[in-house]
Amino acid sequence: MDPSSTPVVRRPNRRTLLRAATIGLAAPVLTGCVTGAGDESSTSARSETSADNPLGVPEKAPLEVVVFKGGYGDDYAINAEKLYEQRYPSATVDHKGIQKVGEALQPRFVADTPPDVVDNTGAGRLDLATLVAAKKLTDLTELLDAPSLHDPTRKVRDTLLPGVVEDGTLDGKVYSLNFTYTAWGLWYSKPQFDRHGWTYPSTWDGMLALCAEIKKAGIAPWTYQGKYPEYLNDPLLTMAAKAGGPDLVKAVDNLQPGAWKQQPLLDAATAVAELAGRGYLLSGSEALSHTEAQAAWSQGKAAIIPCGSWLEAEQKGVTPDGFDMVMAAVPTLGAGDRLPYGALLAASSESFLVPAKAKNPRGGLEFLRILFSQPAARRFAELNSTLPSVAGATDGLTVSSGLGSVRAAVAAAGANTFTYRFRTWYAPLAKAVDDATGELATRRVTPAQWADRIQRAADALARDTTVAKYTR
Amino acid sequence: MAAMRHGKYRFLAGAILPGLLLYAVFVLSPYAQAFYLSLTDWTGVSGEVGFVGLDNFRRLLDDRLFLSALRNNGLMLLVVPLATILLGLLLAALVNFGGRRGSTGLAGIRGGEFYKIAYFFPQLLSLPIVAVLWQFVYHPNEGLLNGFLRAVGLDALAHAWLGDPALALSAVMAVLVWSSVGFYMVLFSAAMESIPRDVLEAAVLDGAGRLATLRRIIVPLLWDNVQVAFVYLGVLALDGFAVVQVMTAGPGGPDGATEVIGLGLYRSAFTYGKFGYAAAMGVTLFFLTLAFAVIALRASRRERVELS
After folding, report:
1. Would the CB atoms of A124 and B272 count as touching at under 8 Å?
2. Complex ipTM, two decimals?
């Protein structure tokens, strides 16, 4: 699978090349549009609402859908478009499956001629916070309150997995709806663990004990995607959130003074530093790309790797038969934890939005109502072995080992899922955290220095008046 | 006669103006607009643009990453052109004069043409491909470089080349030198071939050694080429975006160790949605490059050596 196309919310840009050379040209060419953008208001045509058409879609209006065609392809969207055409036979649907969403749509947003639905995903996506600040998006509240397509007794909002609505909320309004559901955890090969008689631990002390055992067997206990240290952030931040509870996550996201120096964060950083200190990380991991680290793990050179639930799909081509990977929750730091072991860092991704100046915004909302219905979501799960963000969409489906473990972990977590928002809200802070964690894992900074430098970055951001601030 | 001359100018204007117009539209006007954008807070998706004056430039001075980018580009500017030119000269001299001394003076090495092609080869690959290849070479566990070091018993020298802040920038610079040295070798080689043999023979007759011949005769005779090479390589060193983006942690890491201006510019524009700020970086880079080119050309001005 093409790694850069895996739809992960926070995957760094890694393969777009040589554009710095051309940006001197590209940016200004767009300026022509900057000054040329008209103030022509959108013609939000709407027809009468009815039980069958709760969003008032004008039946003849054409619909333009632009979908990120990455790791999940775009067949699932085409499937939903067919359902749309069945409901509105006189409407035509214009489908575009593309890879560089940002590049293709930036000029159209500037010129206020955007499509009706956009799947704003992939390395080249547009920054959501920037789009919201520029008032380029439609508030999706109406869609969330509309009856669900597969179960008209429930609202769309009640058919989604926990956290999905919050993930698309900025400043109290919902601007995007994420179609896939990602949980983060630690992965291992079940047969490998069984062979050696290892048991996956639920506490960090247990993890250290297990690592000692794995090391004795001549295998590196952990590896991580060192070129993108954000992968190692996930278990770190998960442990901190479990120990400190939702208040800790909130303090971090709201840029509260001293938020990064809270004890659970320091403890979690210490735990990660300890992995490095005791030599439990595959040597050289800090210079490996995500594909290289994951390949080393698939080849059995390391036993455990942190990653999100897309890992199984991403490793499809290189995983040996019978590897049977499973994802487990991150162990807890200690007895004082505020959340149980099963709690998960989970968030939705594959972000669908309806531009504010779309020609057919009602149709855009209706398309999303169809896409987020169980039959369409189930089709997606079948096509991609990935959890959609519609609750129960995979019920009764026979699934692979990895997806099965993710489904079980999500079920076990129940309402105990959480996610940090600073990554989407403040991309520069995310970079500061990644850099610091990279240094922590190579023991070039201590946990205290780790917290200090991130706190400095967060404080600087809080002071910066040009950055729009969000709170939760 | 006068009419003919008139016609000539009309013809020249007709030939030049369309090109000039295209140049103005696609080169000059984007530059002008970039200058304007650098004074705004444009986000890249909005039609609204706020004028912020020199604020973007003031922020650059407080931007830790931008400052390390300046430092790294500065270091690359010192090392890459110098190393490439020295290596290129050395290789060209070896190919052209490295052979056994014939009765008439200096002779080329056997198989010189083959070496020229072999060294020129990297030039045919685009920089991102070169970067991907070298990523494999530098792979900490399965890479060619560490594999070689371990094979000859130098285990202590094996490193996570791209993951170590102390080494990452050097590793990147080595790739830049590797990818460009072949071109300059061929360039210098061609220039050396045009040096009249009798000048070299005279030097040999006067008892000049090889090194002295190279330093005193050959290099001064191709100084123009060296000067041009220096400017080109300097511009290359001020960029470095593709290699850093593909190869290093972060990218731009570990911990900003290989951050370059182009990368910060790209990140600001396309990841952070700060096109105004990115344009300010671009304008800064423009002036740095311009200043470098002017200084390089002036400082390296020498009296021309006239042959014949």
Report:
1. no
2. 0.84
